[in-house]
Every structure is written in structure tokens, then in C-alpha cells.
Amino acid sequence: MATSDSSSSPSSSGTEFADPNPSTDPETNSERVQSQLESMNLSQPSEVSDGSHTEFSGGDDDDNDVASANGNEGGVSNGGLVSEGVAGISGEEEIEVSLRAENPVEMEAGEEPPSPTSSGYDGERGSSGGATSTYKADDVSEDEIREANVDGDTASQHEAAWLPGKRHVDEDDASMSWRKRKKHFFILSNSGKPIYSRYGDEHKLAGFSATLQAIISFVENGGDRVNLIKAGKHQVVFLVKGPIYLVCISCTDETYEYLRGQLDLLYGQMILILTKSIDRCFEKNAKFDMTPLLGGTDAVFSSLVHSFSWNPATFLHAYTCLPLPYALRQATGTILQDVCASGVLFSLLMCRHKVVSLAGAQKASLHPDDLLLLSNFVMSSESFRQVLNILSIRTSESFSPICLPRYNAQAFLHAYVHFFDDDTYVILLTTRSDAFHHLKDCRVRIETVLLKSNILSVVQRSIAEGGMRVEDLPIDRRRRSSTANQGQDTAVPEVSVGTGGPCGLWHFMYRSIYLDQYINSEFSPPVTSHRQQKSLYRAYQKLYASMHVKGLGPHKTQYRRDENYTLLCWVTPDFELYAAFDPLADKAMAIKICNQVCQRVKDVENEVFLQGASPFSW
Amino acid sequence: MGMASMSSGSESLRLCVFDLRRGQHEGQELDKILFFYPPDLTFSTQLSVIGLSEGLITFTRLFSPEAACEVIEAERHSHVFYEAEPDIWMVMVVEKNKEIEAVWRIDALRRVLKEVHSLFVMFQGSIRALLEKEPTGGLIRSHLYPFITDYLNDLFVCKKHQLPSFRETLTERGTVQMLTLARDAALEVQSLVGVLDSCAGTVRCHSVILFHDLLVSTTLSPDDTVDLFAFSVMRLTTNALSSGTSSWSYLRKGSVTPQISSRSTSVLPLGSGGTLPSGNGSSTGRVIRPLQQDKWSKGKDGFLVTDIWGIDATPTILIQKTQERFYFLTYQYKSLTLVLLVPTAAIVNGELDISFVKQQVIENASAKILKVEEKLSKGWGGENAYHVSGYRYLLVDNDMEVSRASPAGKVATLAKESLLALNKLREEVDTEKSRSKQEKDMETCIRAKNNTWVIARLNRGKELYMALEKASETLLDATDSVQRFSNRYCSGAFSMD
């Protein structure tokens, strides 16, 4: 019998951990599970069903209403957040050192890296300040309350307004506005202690967190593991990583597979900051409180969560390059390679989240997910951009312990980060904690080459010009269907349906399987607002999930049409193509255009992809 | 051999019915349970299944007040929820096992729950009503237990329950399969229906006519037709009566085997009534088991007889649309099955009046029945009547609750991978449908790894699912195939222009 463990006979796993919340519940763990599950019944308050419902119904379609209504309290809690971050410093460093001491790859505890800046953690306090300032910013992304007004024009203005950091800290599970948020993320420990919540103050969510823990362990006690709960438009997705539980509650129209992938990335981001050796802290003390360790990293997580709705790398598991002339990328690659030869593990030149070039030491390979998490960490932490050094001089170089979860989740590497300008930065990764000065020298060498070949201004120009555009695709005026044997000469109007590219092509993504890289076209009309773009990416995500069904996939081709798009996907051993067309686009022409897109990408592959200059085997 | 034997060994199905309004106080939790299968599980195990379900219903309502928990997907089990009546939930827990092909579509499993509940209501009235009639719950438990157990018996093949797996992805439970009539046959049927409806004098009757396992005509609402059709195919049609020879109907394919029928006649599951949470079921009088197997036979006068409702007692059912109770009389001639529904309120003299109605049917309708049977038999294409060469399809009309599909034997020729791919596609479509408020209009064509095209088309409440093996490799060819099918067999419902 699979679930023969009755609730009244707690299994060993249930009693293994001491009670995490003595203040709220002094009973044993399994009894708490029961009482939790029971209390969920009893306490399901009338507030859910009646009264408060109407209270917020007005704010349903406008998030700002809710935000401003909470404004006063918001100020107070934000203040609390900042001061807490400061208070936590001493504790953080203490634990950080202890983590390192446990880590065989690490240097001895106590040996301070001669870094001009502090560790990443301190720096992030700056970003928690950022959170305070962004509180009043327009809310975007899933931040909006469910069933918000779908208004393209205002939504498009939102994009520019997105700022990292945590919002709605004053909410908790009792607030109706909190329950109506479209997408929640929670990280908690297996004893039910909250570690991270996308919305609301973790401390106020202790009870809710315990409920999540109760659900997970209740199913676990029955010899099973809960993955997903569906209720109407809502999905509750669970991911258990040792002593860390991750939960997503979402009513966004995303697939289970992708939501689970998002939790996986969220976990990876946490490991990037702390390494997997935190597991040992939980082994030693089940009540271990992890929140101080992550103090001030709200911006990192919120930026990652934001990227789930705009960055295809999060579901394609591939990275993208900034388009550059082949020779320039080669020149950059050469100097990065040289640097790696001098004992640097990885050297990367990045522009925002795009790769300019990268190189690695022999046999070292960098997973695209690590690259995503690393660039997110660097880009979202203000501290990497501008820090005050010991002499109170502004500098933009930092040295910080970082873990690459896919490369080695157990050990810290050390990252030297330097911003050349607002967008372009170099990351040098080493296993040696005393390598700051060496890496600084490497950076100077790289900078010299960059200046000499004027790469930085080319990079800026490339940013301004953007990537491929569907409008630039050549329009084939021959009215012949791509499959001549069909004998059906489709009388397709020459002028493309709607706007965008030829034959109603709106957008495409091309992923090279060998290179683990992708490119996507710039958004063109009519996909202009942030909301429309997000919706298109969601459609792609579904298509991706549908093509890569576990155990069956990948499928070869897929055509999908609904009221919003015509989507085509083509998977070969070499590449995957995802293309979005006007829903009224002609099928035969769409196929033809897809072939043209593939040809076009092959024509420019030297500019848009980082070609095998580096000895990586991904 | 009793019911207990079913739950032993490799049995991996759990099914429970519980009432959220009951057992709210500590120590009274058992009161919630109205039905639990397998019945020999300890109370604490039963309570833990129900506790989890109840906890998650409450939890999900925090975020989704309008639609509570529908499914829990765990590593080894799927828990499928169905709120049959307000606060009355049915939960089915099934074990996933890739080796024995336990790959399901959740919606198909939920339709099983829906069907068993609809059938229960049709015969016994709503669960809530029975609970209100006798608040201790003894009455409802004593009715639910044999009813659901009898229903599950039908799914019991080779020592375990055969739930609708991916192999049945080209079927739709909860719909009716219709016989296509030629014009002259349709006129004959219409005239027969007219005669049947007036068999009880001025009292308006209803009728449902089946030929083999296909619906020929109905005067009931679509919902009521679905329930009565499901029951007829289970127990009344010629295929159901000769249950030894397995029905070709794809819905019931292989569900009735000689092994079960021999067993279920000899054993009364009520013998294990002692395991019921409330043992007072017997005090409420005789419990009728409408789904009991092998209890129907054809009488000399052509009417089917059963002692399920007692010797010489005519069965009654509740019609949802009007909430009226009807006697139902089943007349069979060759492969033609006619169900006549007479309002109980109109029958004053009980069985006396009923025999009068029967007599009327024989006197007035016999000739027409003969004629209709002759016409239908002549036009009858056999088991593979609806096979379309090269296609494996399912066509569903949601408004009419009607479906048509390739014959089971033909679907069985598809590769496992093709069926799995189509099953997965149907799952995606289920999700899209549940998210969209209006009727969804969409088209998906997938060329799977094994080169099969799996296709889903939704248009104005109609759905078409297809698997095309050995089709041409181009998308346009596949689309053309759908187009041809649509023009020929769906009156162009899925044509693209």
C-alpha cells in the first residue's frame, strides 16, 4: 500500500527535525502536520469567501490602487527591512566564514581576500536600499494583481519602469491583495522556516510557510512526493532540494514543466550565492535560519523572477550573444583565452545578459544556466557596478565568492567583476581566493585590447542597432508554395498580413543545438507592449514544453494556431526554430518563411553566434 | 471471493466520497467518509487520504476561491478531485506505473467519477438528499457502497481495475455515440418515437432507442440521454446482455469479461458491510443495486426483466432536467433496444398500469419496431461502420454531448508512441479549454518522433483528434487530410477558409 502510513503513526522522517516554530506550535512535527491540515480546514476563514472579497474587488483591475492603499504601511516595513539588513551583517560574515571552512576547495577560514570591496553579501545591502526606492514604482510583470486590465498601451510603458527589488512587503497571507498576486515564489526549509517569498515579509509568512511544509511532508509520510496541485487556473508547483523546499503558486498561463524549471533556477540562484554546503547547516541544526544569509539579495531574486517572463534563456537553456563582426569577437576571444591560460577558470565579456565572448580553462565547461544565473547576479546587484573602496573612491571592480551550481554546487569560486561602462563588464572566475591582484592585472590586459580595437564602442553600436529584425527578411515575390508537389498555388497577398515581417511573420527564435546558443529577433509591431511580448514568450514556452515532452520528445514539427498566433516549431538535430505569425497567416507561406529564416540565420551565423573559438564542450 | 479480494495484491486504486460539512469536530472525522474503496483499509489510512484532500481543497481556495483543488500530481500517484455536489467530493487516487502503461489523462479519470455520480443520482437521487433524509449517514453509505462497488466491478479486468489509459485516448466518456440514419430510416424512427410517446394515453412519455450500442433516437435532454445511454450500454443492450462476448463498443471494450460475471453473480459485496463506517445500513431497508451485473434478461414478451428492484417491480429513474421520476421499461427486438420512460406521477395503479403500457407498446408499436429494425440492419455497416481508412480519429460535439471515433480494433493498430503523443496533446488541449472562458478555436498539428501526425482541432464547440500514421511528411499534406475528413464526415466543421 503506497500511502499506508496513517497520519496517526508518524514516520521517522516526520520526527527527525525539531519543531521549527516553537512559538506557534509546540507539538511534534507530524502532529503539527495534522493540526495544520486540520487547521487549514477550520481556519479557512470567512474572510476568504465573503467580506474582504468585495473590499478589493475595486482594485482588481488596477494594481496601483492596492499599492497606494498600502503605501503608509509600506514605508514602515521598508524601513524595517533596511535596518534588518544592517543588523544582520555580523551574523552573515560569521556564517560565511563557517561555510568556507567546511569547504575543501576553499582557502582556510579567516584568510581575508585582499579585496577592495566586501563580499557580495555586503554589497547587496545597496540593492535592498534599491528596493525601498522602487517600492513606489509602477508594478509590472506578474506583479500585477490577477485579472488585471489588459491594456496594451499602459503595459508597454511598464517595461521601462521595472526595477528590481521586493514589493508589497507589507502584505501577508491574510491580505486579499497578496492572495491575488499572479505568481508567488517561496523558498522554505524542510522544518517550515521561510527563507524567501516574492511578495510579503517572510517573517509574517511563517504560518503560511509551515502550511506548505505540512503539505509536502504529509505526502512524503505517505511514501510519495508532491509535484503539482491544480485548482482552476492556479498551479502549485513543488520542488524539493534536500533540506530546501521551493514552491510556486501561479495563475499565469505557464506550463508545469516551465514553472518547475523556474524553481530550479531559483534554487540555482540561491546556491550561486551560498553553495550547496548550506545543506550541512540544516543537518547540524534543523532550525537553522537561512534568511540572514540571503539578506539583501531580494533584487537578485526579483530580477531572476522578472527574467522568467522576458528572457528565453530561462526555458531554452541556451545563451545568446551580442551581434558583432566576426573578427572583433575573435579578437576578444583570443585575449580571454590568453587570460584563461594564466590560471583563470573562466573569463567572460558580457553586455547586459548577452555574451560578447567567453573562454574557459582546459576541460572546464560552463552551463548556459550558470551563465544566466551569474549574469543575473552581477547585473542585479548594484554593488558590482559602483562600490566605495577603502578610500571612499568610487570604483567598479569587485571580488566576490560565487558558486556555479552546474559546474560545482559544493564549492565557491571567486569572481572578479569589472564594469567598463553601464552595460559591458568582464567576469573572471578563479578557484583561488587570493587572486584579486592577478585578476586585476588580467582585466587591465583585456581592457587594453578592448580599447585598442575599439570594441566597447562597437558593442554600444550593436546595442543601439539591436539584433535581427523580421522586417529585414527578404520578401520572396514568387507566389509559389514551398511544396510545389501540392500543386496548390496559393494566392497569397504580397503585402504581409498585419505588420511585422513577410507573410505575417511577427517574431522568431533560433536555437543552435551544438553551440547551446540562441538568437531571437527584435520585437516588431504588432508585438510591441511588454504584455504582448510576455504573452508571446508564454506561447513559445508552451510550444517548447509540448515539443520536448518527457519520454516522447522531441517531436519533429509543430504547427499551432489559436486566436492569438500561428506558431511553427521545427526541431532538427542541428537547430530548433520557433516562429510566431499572425493568426491568419497562410500555412504554406509560413513554412516557406521559416525556411528563409533558417537560411538567413545560417548566412549570418558568424556574427550572431560565438563560434567554436573556445575549447568548450558544453 | 468477496470485495476484499479486489483490493489485495496489485490493486492500486482508491476512491472516496466525503462530505465537507460533516465531522467538523475532533473525534468525529469518520463521519465525513461516505464511501471508501478499498473498504478494508484502516480508518486512519482512510482519514489520511481524506485529510489531505480536505486540507488541499481548503488551501487552494485561498488562492482560487472559485475553483478548488482538481488534481494532485505526486511522484507515484495522481489524486483526481471532483466536487460532485456542493461540498460533496469524490477523490480517486491512482498509482502511476510506467511499466504497466498506467498513463492517463486526468480529465478522462475525472469523467469516470462524473459518470458514476450521474448514474447514482439517476437511480437514487442526490447524495445530499439522501443525507438530509437520514442525517446519520447510514442510508447514503448503504446505497453508495454497493453502487460504486458494482460500477468498479465493470472496470475490473485481470485482477485490477482498467482505468481509461492513453490507449483510450480516442474515446470520450460521458458522450453518446450515434447511429447515422438514412433518410427513410430516419422517417421510420420518427414515426416509431411518436407511437412510443403516446403509449400511456395522454401521459407524455419519453423514449430512447438504441441499435447495438449506438443511439438511434432520444426525446430526453442531452445530459439525461448521456446517463441513460451509459447505463443502457452497460446493462441493457444486446451486447451488454450477452456480456460473455465482449462488446465492440470502444467505451466498454474489454470491460466485461466472463470472469467477472461469474464472480459477481455468486457474491454479494454487501457481505462485507461490516467494514462500513456506519453499520446501520441494514436498518434502512432493502438496498437496491441498480448496477448489479447479470441481472437482466429478456422476458417472453420482449421486455427486459430484472429482480434488482424486487420481483415484478419496475425500475425507476430520476430525470435531471425536470427532477421527475420515471418508470423505465426496456423492450428489445433483435439488436434494437427501446427504453420507454413513463412518469411515475401519472401511474396510479402501479404495476397494473405498467402492464397496460407494455401491452400498448406491443400492440401499437410492434410493427413499426420490426420495420425500423429491418431498415437499420440493412444499412448497418457492422463494427467497423465508422472506420475511415487511413485515419484514427475522435470527433466530439460538446453541445450535443455526442462523439464518434474510429473502432477500437483499428485504434489498437496504432503504435504506442502515437497514442502517447496524442494523449499528451489531448492533455494540452484540456488545459487550454479549462483556461479559456469562451469556446476555444484552435488547431495543432504535431509530427512526432515516430513520424506520426497527431492533430487536434477545436472549432465552435466541436473537437477533432487524429493520429495519422504513414502519412506524408509535409504539414500541408497532413492539413489536407484533415480538410478532406472534415468536408466528408463533419460537414466541413473544421475546414479552414
Give the tags.
heterodimer, A: 618 residues, alpha+beta, Beta-Lactamase, 3 domains, five-stranded antiparallel β-sheet, globular, disordered N terminus, disordered C terminus, B: 497 residues, 19 strands, FUZ/MON1/HPS1_longin_1 (chain A), Vacuolar fusion protein MON1 homolog (chain A), FUZ/MON1/HPS1_longin_3 (chain A)
> For the report, how would you describe the main beta sheet of chain B?
5 strands, antiparallel
Structural class of chain A: alpha+beta
Portion of residues in helices of chain A?
40-55%
Oligomeric form of this entry?
heterodimer
Low-confidence stretches of chain B: 1-10, 244-284
Q: Could you say which structural class the secondary elements and strand pairing of chain B correspond to?
A: alpha+beta
| Shape descriptor of chain B | globular
Q: Assess the beta-strand content of chain B as a share of residues.
A: 15-25%
Low-confidence stretches of chain A: 1-34, 39-141, 146-160, 477-498, 613-618
Using the coordinates above, name the CATH class of the largest domain in chain A.
Alpha Beta
Radius of gyration of chain B: 23 Å
Instruction: Give the overall average pLDDT of chain A.
Output: 74
DSSP summary, beta strand count of chain B: 19
Tally of alpha and pi helices of chain B: 13
CATH topology of the largest domain in chain A: Beta-Lactamase
Estimated share of beta-strand residues of chain A: 15-25%
Q: From the alpha-carbon coordinates, what is the Rg of chain A to the nearest angstrom?
A: 25 Å
Main sheet makeup of chain A: 5 strands, antiparallel
Distance between the termini of chain A: 43 Å
The total count of helices of chain A amounts to 24
Family (chain A): Belongs to the MON1/SAND family.
Pfam family, one (chain A): Fuz_longin_2
Function (chain A): Plays an important role in membrane trafficking through the secretory apparatus.
Protein name (chain A): Vacuolar fusion protein MON1 homolog
